[in-house]
Amino acid sequence: MTHAIGILIVDDEKDFATGLARLLGRHYPDEHIMAVLSGSEALAALQNDVFGLMLTDLNMPDMDGVELLRRAREIAPDMSVVMLTAYGTVATAVDALKKGAYDFLTKPVDPKDLFHVVDRGIERSRLLGENARLQELLAEQKGANELVGDSLAIRRLKEGIAAVAESEYTVLIRGESGTGKELVARTIHRLSGRREKSMLTVNCPAIPDQLLESELFGHVKGAFTGADRDRKGIFVSADGGTLLLDEIGDISPGIQTKLLRALQEGEIRPVGSSTTLPVDVRILASTNQPLEDKIKDGSFREDLYYRLNVLNLNVPALRDRSDDIALLARHFLTISCEEMKVAPKNMSPDAVAYLSTKAWPGNVRELQNFIRRLAVFSSSESLELVHLRLVEGLDGVPGEETSGLTPYKDAKEKVVDDFTRAYVEELLAETRGNVSEAARQSGLSRVALQKILKRLDVVAGTYK
To answer: Contact at 8 Å (CB) between 318 and 278?
Structure first.
């Protein structure tokens, strides 16, 4: 979705200023465009409104373009400024570039050159604005236990977490490997009434079946060879707190039976013991497997499934929240630099755009590992597209010569389309398919929004 950034035109020749405004208005119908006749009027406009791009004449009577540039940047430091100059003062315009102007155009202005420069100025301002927004979001989500993201999918997940956190019911957390199911569980615990107690995790596939029962329920001395003393299990250790059974789909039928009894009765029996112990534990379970299929083939108990699936949350795959990739990448880069105790690094918009077009079958975990390698192998403070390609080569991914890098234009179009689709879908969901209201909230004209919906094949009626 392309948001209007605002274009301010400054020229003491009224006919030229208003003519330029009309020309740009026809070419950029969704932009807010204002024309003023002096530097002082321009500064007043900047104080009262937001503009991402300013086109200003270099030679004006009350305040020249260079002085306006200096003072305007104090008000709007990220605004792109284009100088308009007569042929004989090009050298002065070049000097203005050194002082912070983005570009310059000579009068009379050729429309083709004008649109080219304005396109690039708008794109620069949007990228700077997006970067600022991402930094603000990162600041809000600085904590290590936060779910980083602002996409519709992740916001709905956060709403689900908040809804289930205060209850005592078991929660089944489902999602592909690497999506952050354990982080979801920890967030539930942190928001729950048990936050002052411990949360413990059992990685079910990592523990041999013959040891898992003892790990969960404990054992008494002499229960089996090597049991030379009593051992309390993780259920007892987590008493009063939360227990995450990670990848619950991998436990054996025998352990399933004993786990079901513990959930039903609220008590456990240590291996080798004839007595039971009461436990007060809130159970969270996670899985990347289709448990319904395992029930059908007899490898997972149906009654245990319903004990676990009282409440459920689905953690979206990264491909379903691609809008978050830029935010996640910068978040992981900040963390990696802190872990390595090196100066903070930043990532160019091109590099971020490329990351957003890549497939991440390993989901968030794969992206995090890639960013860690990027931080290690790139000594530059600013990470560019070439650094990403270097790390891909270290990973054994074919280079541009063999696999072909997605052309920048195609990559950019995909990122924009993905963002636009997510934006309009959320917009229509909030307005219940009312296109007029959606246009009003988005700042677009109704015609412009309808064109976007048609291009993306989004039917507003499905959201009513």
So the answer is: no
Burial of 65 (0-12, 13-18, 19+ CB in 10 A): buried
Q: What is the CATH number of domain 7-139?
A: 3.40.50.2300
What are the CA-CA distances from residue 415 to residues 153, 256, 325 (Å)?
A: 17, 45, 10
Model confidence at 411, pLDDT cuts 50, 70, 90, reads: low
Q: What is the mean pLDDT of the chain?
A: 84
CATH architecture of 318-405: Orthogonal Bundle (1.10)
Angle at 206 between CA 204 and CA 207, to 5 degrees: 75
| 462, 452 contact by CB (below 8 A) | no
- Please compute the mean of the pLDDT values over residues 197-216 and round it to a whole number: 87
Residue 343's beta-bridge partner residues? Answer: none
> Considering the domain 152-314 in this protein, what is its CATH number?
3.40.50.300
Does pLDDT of 172 surpass 90? yes
Contacts of 372 (CB under 8 A, 6+ apart): 332, 336
Domain ranges of the chain: 7-139, 152-314, 318-405, 409-463
